[in-house]
What we know:
- The chain is mainly beta.
- It has one helix and 23 strands.
- The strands form six sheets. Strands 1-8-7-3-4 form a five-stranded mixed β-sheet, with no helix packed on it.
- Strand 11 and strand 12 form a beta hairpin.
- It starts with a strand and ends with a helix.
Amino acid sequence: xxxxxxxxxxxxxxxxxxxxxxxxxxxxxxxxxxxxxxxxxxxxxxxxxxxxxxxxxxxxxxxxxxxxxxxxxxxxxxxxxxxxxxxxxxxxxxxxxxxxxxxxxxxxxxxxxxxxxxxxxxxxxxxxxxxxxxxxxxxxxxxxxxxxxxxxxxxxxxxxxxxxxxxxxxxxxxxxxxxxxxxxxxxxxxxxxxxxxxxxxxxxxxxxxxxxxxxxxxxxxxxxxxxxxxxxxxxxxxxxxxxxxxxxxxxxxxxxxxxxxxxxxxxxxxxxxxxxxxxxxxxxxxxxxxxxxxxxx
Length: 297
């Protein structure tokens, strides 16, 4: 028979019972095959560990004296009940839907599950759990431009207890696109102060025609800490006209729905240097004469 699992709280006193043996039975306990070193009291078929901690974890076996037959095996798992989970929701695929993520600030050290419930007014919405991120769930918007708040409840539970968090939000508050993609900055020939920057709208944003994005560009020379900013309507390109000649620039772009929500994170930084004139090859006259002289008959 496999060992049964006994979950107990860190810092508590723990009693383990050797199978169904009577109170006057005499037993020997081992943990992972060796003597039990923890602070302990042995009462007949019971082992009492005092103020258990993570090092108390292990496979406990009890043997009946005097013949040494093994009577029971218990896997002790020490941990904590969960505290309130942290929950955040965001729509990066507006107007299709949104996703919520949750996590615990503190480890519980034992298996902990999450239950997620989403309501829009009185209507219960289906939560599609993410296949890659286990602490994430996706929800489709049941309607658009709704003034009814969404309510998301996440309950964390394990063998030692449970705890839950509820958040309320409006549809328009959680809209936050992913950053723009494929940002490219190129010098413009014969222009020592210009850089041409182009980018794509985030590929996760489903309908840029009907739900246009605006963009925010920031740029600075590597030698300065001060960013310069430009806000653009729905254009996906911009020409920087005030770059310092010959200086390398760092450039990033962010996106936002033109009406609602918040700005995306910044795109991956790209580096570019304005066009520079090639220095002219100047040869001295004496050198030129010497070269010419070698060809004289």
